Amino acid sequence: MVVHEERLIKPLFAKGPSLGVRLLVLVVLSITLMVVDARFTLLKPVRSQMGLVLMESYHITDLPQSLWQGVASQFGSRTELIAENEKLKTEALLMQGRVQKLAALTEQNVRLRELLNSSALVNEKVEVAELIGVDPNPFTHRILINKGERDGVVLGQPVLDARGLMGQVVELMPYTARVLLLTDTTHSIPVQVNRNGLRAIASGTGNPERLELRHVADTADIKEGDLLVSSGLGQRFPAGYPVATVKEVIHDSGQPFAIVRAVPTAALNRSRYLLLVFTDSRTPEQRATDAAMAQEAADRQGLPGNAEAAQPGATTVTPAPAPAPAPGTAPATPANPAPVASPAAVPAAPAPAPAPAPAAASGAAATPSRERH
After folding, report:
1. 3-class SS of residue 371
2. Helix or strand or coil: residue 32?
3. What is the mean pLDDT of each run of 10 residues along the chain (373 residues)?
């Protein structure tokens, strides 16, 4: 009876498989699932459903952080916007002042050009281009822009950004063009020091942050901080555009030339939008002809019917009659004969009345009279 009761009593905690067996089963199951998932598409619907379920849990766990970031951005963005607004107002005021000064300088330049009459007034035309590619070769500094031959771009055309010159067009395609930057080892540009007009040649070094001035005399007046601008002597880049700022000048008493290093003013590695400069492509003869035509038109507007008389030095002068020589003597020649105007400058009018002779001519004519006495 006792033995029968002991058989009826069951243990409270049933003993299952060992941990090693469980681990082995789980490993086999995992490998099977990975193989099935990689080789077949049976588990894709299951994965999609599990992704939907887990996405909600992701949102719930990320909710506190999202709320905190939203509150912080509300207060932080207001402060930043106020500060940025004040900064933009200050910059706008400064830019307005610079624009007013630039307008005054432009008007002064126009007046000086009209006064000198050196050439006809031609404003440089620019066109905005966008950078769309960079040459992957680390030893070649070239970029690709979205303007090409169909847009009027020509070989050798200058390219600049908001800070200064960047380079020139060296290859043309119908809708794109390739630009060689100033820092390329094969590129050089004639420059001059803005402070004193000292001329030099700035060459690329292969470093996008450095240019070198070649063959600068050791005694040349150049120092750190000088602004280098294009001189226009190469007939390729327009004059007056900033090129670089002198960073270092090394003088060596044993060398005839100083080592001058400069930093380009243009943001060669950061500029996205560029300017293509369309310079005056006329020959010197064409510019001289246009200048003459412009001057002739200005004279006609000033004095209609007698444009030549408006020019300085075109005053009509009539020679005075010399006194008759005494019998037996040669006619006296005035020492300084009165100037005679060119036929083009003499107006068609009746012959003027005899005017008194100049002082020099009277003195010369009186000399023979004293000799007769």
Report:
1. helix
2. helix
3. 53 69 90 84 77 74 82 76 88 80 72 54 70 90 93 91 90 93 94 92 93 91 93 85 93 88 92 82 67 79 47 42 45 43 41 43 38 38
Q: Are residues 271 and 133 in the same domain?
A: yes
Q: For residues 129 and 151, give the distance between their C-alpha atoms in angstroms, rounded to a whole number.
A: 10
| Residues 268 and 128 reside in one and the same domain | yes
Tokens of 330: 């040669």
pTM of the model: 0.47
Residue with token string 């390219």: 159
The count of domains in the chain is: 2
286 is a domain residue: no
Q: Tokens in use for 119? A: 């050439």
3-class DSSP state for residue 5? helix
334 burial (CB, 10 Å; 0-12 / 13-18 / 19+) is middle
Residue 138 to residue 184: CA distance in whole angstroms: 10
